Amino acid sequence: MLKLSRLADYATLLMCRMTREPEAALSAAQLAQALGLPLPTVAKLLKRLTRAQLLSSERGGNGGYRLARSAASISLVDVISAVDGAPALTQCVNTPGSCAIELNCETRGHWAAINHAVSSVLSGVSLAQLGSARAIVIKPPQRIDQRKEGASRR
Amino acid sequence: MLKLSRLADYATLLMCRMTREPEAALSAAQLAQALGLPLPTVAKLLKRLTRAQLLSSERGGNGGYRLARSAASISLVDVISAVDGAPALTQCVNTPGSCAIELNCETRGHWAAINHAVSSVLSGVSLAQLGSARAIVIKPPQRIDQRKEGASRR
DNA sequence: CTAATATAGGACTATATAAGTCCTATATTG
DNA sequence: CAATATAGGACTTATATAGTCCTATATTAG
User: Fold this and answer.
1) Domain ranges of chain A
2) Which of A83, B32, B103, B121 shows its CA 20 to 30 Å from the CA of A13?
3) Which residues neighbour strand C (beta carbon < 7 Å)?
């Protein structure tokens, strides 16, 4: 169905929430409370996001997490990758050798391009946009063209 | 990780293989054999693809499956949707009411646009392209822009 | 210096979803 | 009418994901 993992989904909510208070050090408990999500899960996500350097953390009393850089410079693909690893529509994109028919697969070469196009869409959306009330508008024909053989449908 | 389901992956291989003999009625057994995939799984996929009207089928001796229309007019999103349902990065895109915080979620309105952009990429790739040796070229900046027009959500 | 608080990292368990298999019914061909 | 092939759905199994918990470490306040 091509969906985000639940954790990745939560992570975007978490990051969006933090975008609203970029200066404050928010604890895992505060965030779990604010979003109505289970604390252990939120804590796990915050650790992964910190590890990926999207958040910075401080220990001890008054400690917590905050955005490591501006919300405009953090994209959806950053968040998703931090939580679940980089998008890979097919195994062969990031893990060569994982498919039995890889060697004589006609389609293999194309998947890298397709995967890249999908990632591009997600890297084009920043936390700042996601948290804004303004509509995100897709630059129209979001096309993948085949050289030479025009035959693009539509 | 944002990956295709294994079945969707198999389905693209299956469809690609059929693209090479669009006229022939290929049986489930023949296709399973040709691709080195388990027969029951291939049979299941063929049934779903037929149900979605991407393939036409004939029963009885000399029966089998063939593309219901030209390979150029069948896109990846068609195949994926037939097997797994339409792409829905977040639950709320296709199944409103499934998220507890839906009502006051800031990001909800944006996901429909993002989902649409991703789907567009996949609908821009046809079976004909996927089976061709020619490179699929992504039209460069695959961007999502923020425009100042009124918030469409809410 | 000690107690309290908070994150870091990883191991472990449970669960939901996907994948795979199988059974029965129906249609077509020779 | 026998053989072959798809149609549909129920069922089982496997796997990946999600969730939980434990121990270690760092920081702050008193």
Assistant:
1) 6-131
2) B121
3) A 1, 3, 27-29, 43-44, 46-47, 50-51, 57-65; B 5-8, 10, 38, 40-41, 43-44, 58-63, 84
Who contacts A78 (Cβ-Cβ below 8 Å, separation ≥6)? Answer: A52, A54, A123
The answer to whether the CB of B78 falls within 8 A of the CB of B33 is: no
Please say whether the beta carbons of B39 and B32 come within 8 A: yes
> Residue B107 pLDDT > 60, yes or no?
yes
The number of beta carbons lying within 10 Å of the beta carbon of residue A44 is 15
Q: Output the six-digit token pair for B138.
A: 């992504």
Question: What DSSP string describes A74-100?
Answer: -BHHHHHHHHH-S--SSHHHHSTT--T
Q: Is A34 on the interface with B (CB under 8 A)?
A: no
Closest CA in chain A for residue B130: A107
CA atoms within 13 A on the CB side of B31: 29
Helix (H) or strand (E) holding B22: none
Residue A22: phi, psi to the nearest 5?
-65, -20
Evaluate whether the domain defined by A6-131 bears CATH number 3.90.45.10. no
Q: Do the Cβ atoms of A114 and B133 come closer than 8 Å?
A: no
Q: What is the mean pLDDT of each run of 10 residues along chain A (154 residues)?
A: 92 94 95 92 97 96 96 96 94 78 80 92 94 66 39 33
Query: Token digits for A74?
Result: 């953090």
- Rounded CA separation B124/B117 (Å): 11
